Fold this sequence. Notes:
Elements: E1 4-7, E2 10-13, E3 16-17, H1 18-25, E4 29-33, H2 34-47, E5 53-58, H3 65-74, E6 77-80, H4 83-91, E7 99-101, H5 108-117, E8 121-124, H6 127-139, E9 144-151, E10 173-174, H7 178-187, E11 191-197, H8 208-226, E12 233-235, H9 253-264, E13 270-273, H10 277-280, E14 284-296, E15 299-304, H11 313-317, E16 323-325, E17 336-341, E18 350-357, E19 365-368, E20 389-394, E21 397-402, H12 407-412
Parallel strand pairs: 4-20, 5-6, 5-13, 6-7, 7-8, 8-9, 9-10, 9-11, 11-12, 12-13, 15-17
Antiparallel strand pairs: 1-2, 2-3, 4-14, 14-15, 14-19, 16-19, 17-18, 20-21
Bound molecules: ligand LLP.
Ligand LLP binds at residues 58, 61, 79, 102, 162, 199, 202-203, 237-239, 274-278, 313, 317, 373-374, 378.
Amino acid sequence: MHHFAYRNGVLHCEDVSLEAVARELGTPAYVYSDATLRRHYSVLADAFANRNVLIAYAVKANSNLGVIATLAEMGAGADVVSGGELMKAMEAGVPANRIVFSGVAKTAEEMKIGLTRGIHQFNVESLPELHRLSKIASEMGKRAPIAFRVNPHVEAGGHAHISTGSAEHKFGIAWHEADAFYDEASRLPGIDPVGIAVHIGSQIMRVEQFRAAWEKVVALVRRLRDRGFAISRVDFGGGLGVPYKDGEDPDSPLVYANQARDVLGSLDVQLIFEPGRLIAGNAGVLISKVEYIKERDGRTFVILDAGMNDLMRPALYSAYHEVLPVRTPALGATRSPVDLVGPICESTDRFAKDRSMPPLHEGDLVAFMTAGAYGATLSSQYNSRPLVAEALVRGDACVVVRRRPTFDEMIALERAPDWIASG
Ligand code: LLP
């Protein structure tokens, strides 16, 4: 469910025409829907009404301040994986006590920021990390609330590159080490072991795939409690998928929530989730303009002004994004197979091969659908292309929530060394 639809032949985000956005912001540009973000958050939150739950939005999916602030206003917490994400979440209004700090390589500096701000929890992924955190916390006269992220040795995830829960992945502590690591944590002066966390992958379509991992976590909580640990939180991670293609039908947040209730049974804990894609995925599109149509060797290349640096998912994961013309094609227009490519000097700068598209011409606009998660956040300045603008729409209002930097701004952080003769 999202709020992008055709009106009078033009694709709109809520009440705003994407043609108008393109005129105002230029292209390429990301456009997000406030109503869609809010709906996704509340569907999940409502499914847990009356339960002690913290929905910590995974900021890596879309870290635009406007997006985080929208969710913060709804009551969301934040799952962050860097000092930068932590600062952004706080700037956007997420209270520290709703922030979970995940990630395999927290630096001393990042730990200090989290401890100074008094965040809810650090998800710890190794023994050396635990020891560093304890040392820093004790030096600051604090105790860091932690959950170990356990690696449940469960295979799941929409693509090999976004699965995280099996033994070969770098994430989490080994399942069989958990008891010993909690013993160790309880002996450390700067650590308060309060929870257990798990995250097995992303773009997971069936909730059944989470079940084994969640059941392992619950069994571990019971065992640790029996051994005298005051485990009061479980973090089930993120990972529920969204439809990218017609016909894809991931399990709903309600089914997901029901399974979580079922697995938890009577266990009295704070339940934490870290959804990213589920909330932001189909709340955003990337609009792009056709620069050229190139016919060669029997192929038609539709060359867009968006490149793999702006939307990396197809190049990185062979991910599929539906591409819609912003203006509906004329009645009876025939579709034909084209390659949708960008301007970057790389063969992988191809969004789709042999994609059946209606007729497209120079200057036409297209929209990459379901680009709200891992779109702008994965983008880069490759080929010295300034990061693209981002807009947030609410009803008939459209606000630029990240403006496109000028070339001068892009260059300003760099300098040539003094030994270059200035001429
Ligand atoms: N929690 C942790 C610890 C994570 O590593 C992730 C995502 C999430 C939560 C949120 O997962 P989600 O609910 O969004 O599935 N760039 C890839 C996805 C990478 C996901 C990384 N971790 C993509 O574009 O498909």
